[in-house]
Amino acid sequence: MPNLFSEARAGMAAMLPVALAALPFGMLFGAEAARQGLSVAEALLMSLTVFAGGAQFMSMGLWADPAPWLALALATFVVNLRHALMAASLSGKVAAFTGWQRGAAAFLMADETWALAERRAFGTRLTPAYYFGVALTLYVLWSISTVAGALVGGLIPEPGRYGLDFAFPAIFICLITGFVKDWKALPVIAASAGTALVLHATVPGMWFVLGGGIAGITVAALLPVGRRA
Predict the structure, then answer these.
(1) How far apart, in whole angstroms, are the C-alpha atoms of residue 25 and residue 31?
(2) Does residue 29 sit in the same domain as residue 109?
């Protein structure tokens, strides 16, 4: 039991700085939801059930009355397909997880949670206590920031112009660079980033998210075993 608590505390400590950086991002979502006519409770319910910042912001961009349910479902599906790629990368590192723990871990999967879990698995065994310490810290603070943004969002006109919406992606970029041990990772990064940029410039919608992920994985799989990052 002491080991379980220490693992959970380690996960919380690892995620806390990242989750604090997510607060402006969550507040921006809450503010945007309020401007689209959602109540505080409805904005919170979306964060509690969807829990995917990119998909939530994208939904607000498509929001209308009546809501375009098919378009929202398809766009959310495309944006969140990257989670399937993240889950695949962690599949061999969750042997200690029970069935229900794997289901809960999948629900709580987020970009930063995945990055911290992968980094933990590099050096030691990834335990359920550590993973949920990471994931629940982000989940709780994201939900709190959504409520805060929905309550005060009307007082901040055009909050996106302050650049706060870039805080969370910037933290994720920093976490990813921690995986780069030498130049061998550069082809994977270049393929992923290059494909995403081309698709973003040429193809409408969020296909650049999925395309960048597939391109990076493809290049990593094609590299000789001894040269993979």
Answers:
(1) 10
(2) yes
